[in-house]
Amino acid sequence: WPSLIGAMGVVRARQFGLDDQLSWLLIPLLGFSIAASAFTAIFYGLTDAGKWNRRFKGDLGGQSSSSQTNGLTVLIVVCALLVGTTALIATLVYSFQHLFELQAL
Questions:
Q1: Could you tell me where the beta strands, DSSP code E, fall in the chain?
Q2: pTM for this structure?
Q3: Is residue 23 exposed (0-12), middle (13-18) or buried (19+ Cβ within 10 Å)?
Q4: What is the per-residue pLDDT for 63?
């Protein structure tokens, strides 16, 4: 839901311009939900194979080859880190910019 509400803020900003104050409140929800999703992907990507198997596959003790870390796992974690960091920093910059603009008025 926060992603959809944030996307609605982006649509409002495109329709009414960046002076629309409701979009100032809605757009950061999209950025924060993207950053939270990326954090979750990083958390799952860095989970130990034994913990992963106990939680999702029953107690296999890390013996399943599908739960072992490989190059694809590392690539996904790096991409999640890149996307999540970009979304978080962009959201913070956007929020602080509009906060300072609101205080200057």
A1: none
A2: 0.79
A3: buried
A4: 59
